[in-house]
Design a protein that fits this description.
4 helices; 4 strands; alpha+beta; Alpha-Beta Plaits
Length: 100
Amino acid sequence: MADFIISVIYTFENQGDREKAVKEMTESGVLAAIRSENGCLTYDYYYSVEDGKTMVLYEEWESAQHQKIHMTQPHMKTAMEILGKYPKSTVIKKLTVEEF
C-alpha cells in the first residue's frame, strides 16, 4: 500500500506540447528509470478529457523517504529539463488516503 501519494497538475500552452513532453519523457528512458526505482508503486500521466492543455501525473510511493530519494536520482535532472520546457504552470498536491 502506498504511504505517500502526490499529483502534479501540468497546464500547457497547447495540446501538442503536452504530447511532446510525454514523448520526450518516454523516449529518453526517464519514465522507465523512474518506474524501476525502489519504492515506486505508480508513476503515470493522465490527460484531461475536458481540457486538451491539462495533464496530471499521479505518483504512489512506499514512503515519503522513497519519493525524496527519487528526486535526487540522476535521471530526474533530465526529467526537470524536459518538463521545464513545456508546461506554463505546475501545481503539486500531496494526497491523503483513508481506508474505508
